[in-house]
Amino acid sequence: MVLLEFSMSPMDKGESLSSYVARILNYIDESGVKYKLTPMGTILEGEWDDVIGVVTGCFKLMEQDARRISVNLKVDYRAGSQSRLESKIEKVEKILNKKLST
Amino acid sequence: MVLLEFSMSPMDKGESLSSYVARILNYIDESGVKYKLTPMGTILEGEWDDVIGVVTGCFKLMEQDARRISVNLKVDYRAGSQSRLESKIEKVEKILNKKLST
Amino acid sequence: MVLLEFSMSPMDKGESLSSYVARILNYIDESGVKYKLTPMGTILEGEWDDVIGVVTGCFKLMEQDARRISVNLKVDYRAGSQSRLESKIEKVEKILNKKLST
Amino acid sequence: MVLLEFSMSPMDKGESLSSYVARILNYIDESGVKYKLTPMGTILEGEWDDVIGVVTGCFKLMEQDARRISVNLKVDYRAGSQSRLESKIEKVEKILNKKLST
Asked: What's the pTM value of the predicted model, to 2 decimals?
């Protein structure tokens, strides 16, 4: 299973980007892929082809609006089929035996 | 104000890394800097020198254990002093007029 | 056209990774996509589907060997069909009117 | 020794960014730190404090011009004092026994 975090921004639309981000988030939300929005990006979980497919869909949407686009993407693949969207944080909290800011 | 997301991993310790991550998270938690742990990294908020100082502290800790370390870091600076740790997500939800998965 | 830089590493193979990197580079070199190897990653140039297709091929290769894989990827898309693999550096050198270390 | 690759862009200056990049590159070139400019970023080599110091200097320069700045940064630390700016590529070429596109 793959955890994939990405952010995607138009570079030619000035400093306020939330309307562009919203359009993409709507697409992700309707894709059916498991995800989690953070203040710095969106984390998708699934098989490689599925999560990369969602990123590709987002890019094709944003390409309609923007002349320059920047994408950052980070993948953490681990063999096996267990979800880690919740468990990675729980493990760290268990080791430290305290609640962290999440 | 700066939002800084980073992840830091030893490359020479096998596939299970949560004990190394925990040590760093403990350091961050005690640093007093505002932060948020996600499944893919940790987001710090503050002035440049403060958040970079915390990352430097984490690196010096991990350097004691590991012969090879990989760090990924992304900064989103915006002029002004308002916190965006919560507001970035709220803005997107408001535009879409629905709750997203966070 | 898209400039895409990426790096891909197994997390469970110790500190020396050049044999894994080599296998992937061989795949890229034979893919026919325009690329440039740097000390920190590989830069591909082409249409979105082509460059993402090469990254996917690399992932499927490495997945055969590794139980945990980390991928970092950055895209700079700009409307138009001109290659920027050489021209981005030349522009900066022209503005500064000096040769930089490349 | 640390290899650190980074890119830094104003988000509020439209699609053409080479004049901002040039100003930063001039700063790096005069810093005395070993570096290599690529089409997607700049790779610095040195001790953690030195290379992070250069990135901080670049940020403080760009902060004078821009209301929103995006920074991406990747570190590859390896214990020992050997330079890897050239040797990482040479190793891969040696394993494959062919010249790659660099």
From this structure: 0.95
